[in-house]
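User: I need a structural model of Tripartite motif containing 35-14 from Cyprinus carpio for a docking pre-check later this week. Nothing fancy, just the predicted structure tokens so I can convert them on my end. Input:
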Amino acid sequence: MWVWGKIKQVSRISNRRAKYFFFFFFFFFFFLFCTIAVRTFIGEGLESIMADALSFLEEDLTCLICCDIFIDPVTLKCSHSLCEKCLQRFWMTQDVPQCPVCRKECSHDEPTKSLAFRALCETFKNRKPSAVSGDVCPEHKEALKLFCFEDQQPICVVCYTSKKHENHKCSPVDEAAGNLKEDLKTQMDRHQATLTELKKAQEKCVKQSELFKEHISMTENQIKKEFEKLHQFLRDEEEKHIRSFQKEMQPQDEKLKARMKELSKQISDLSEGMAAVWQDMEAENISFLQNYSDTIKRLQHSLVPNTTLRLEEYQHYHIQTIIFTTWARMQNLVEHPPVTLDPDTASSKLQVSEDCTSVRYVEVQMHNFDNPERLYVGVLASQGFSSGVHCWDVDVGESDHWMLGVVGETVNRKRLYKMDPKSRFWCLRFIDGEYKKGYKPVRYIDDSEWPSIIRLQLDFDKGELRFTEPFRNRSLCTYTGGFPERVFPYFCTGDYLKSLHLFPANKENF
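Assistant: Understood. Predicted structure tokens for Tripartite motif containing 35-14:
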């Protein structure tokens, strides 16, 4: 009887609208009946089919403005139905009332209310399966269809029209989730690049640790080898210097280990954080958006670390100096040690002998520790001079490519240099039979006059550096004008067949 009364009420609107409402009522109760039948006789396995059928009916009962089931529906003459409030809000933005769907002009008195249509919508709302609790606005019990970027949370349509979210930037949840996931993916790509840098830094740290341990082992063995040449009463000195050396090396070794441990922790923390973010991104859109603020905070806490390894580089242990000092203490007869080479300053294609008195050119680049003292080209002596008179001889043999001289302590060691005093270089070069003072030719000689011994005489206080051939009693060139800072003897060879050998100059000859 109730249904028949509703149908009669619908017929009073118009024949066409009556048929329209009758169609909805017929299908609604038909679906209702089918649902009961499915639950009772067929089982709940086919409920999804009925849900699909209800979704088609829902499309016809949905307002095209608010995208929700009609609230107080009204129908225009063009047969389009809308929520009364939605239509009024739309008309407030128009100069002439018109249908929001077909744009046909209307009058303010045109909308017709239908109690039957309203009852149908309310019945359908009550019948419509409830959304998951997390997908429903806790305040208005409406579906969460929008995402507010200002408040970083999903909201319903009622929330969107409220004062709380006035002038807030909002988007549909699917669109917002897609955009935010894309932003997160971009950040994850940056973090992946950081992770790659960390792993590369870790690999470099491991290699440097191996080189560092090799250097320690080589130096210890050399110390032992040299001290074995001494008598038994020098054993105590040997052990003392080994302990001193190990004490100097220990802080650097501990720093390397600490850095490796730090890198491992950073990699682990970043990997865990990224895994958690990926897991959040796999969640449902609503759950993802609800936890989006926490996800962002997790990424922001993953600060980009500094992957550059900073070490206070070790100094070469000057073994020859120790030996001479020990002998001097024993009998006070040994003179000051001659100029010796500092392996820590040798460039990648120069190899210094174990006793640090000769250097040779190698074609295969050596994998040396790239410490700040190391030169781009050449090698320095262990001893620097800032006063006094000093002299040393270099046996160049029959080498056709070498450079000798002194360089300033603060010279840039990581690039090619101009061989002139302005660049803190006071050098003599010999290339294919021609002497050069820096880049300027000094003289050309034939094969019979090629030098074998070159003597360097440095008078720091007078600001003078002389190059001579002592056995021919021939002066090659002289630098004057002083030295603005401490200088170190400089050596370089480009002939892989011949080495440069250093030895003390005979004082009787100068």
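Before docking, keep this in mind: The longest strand covers residues 401-408.
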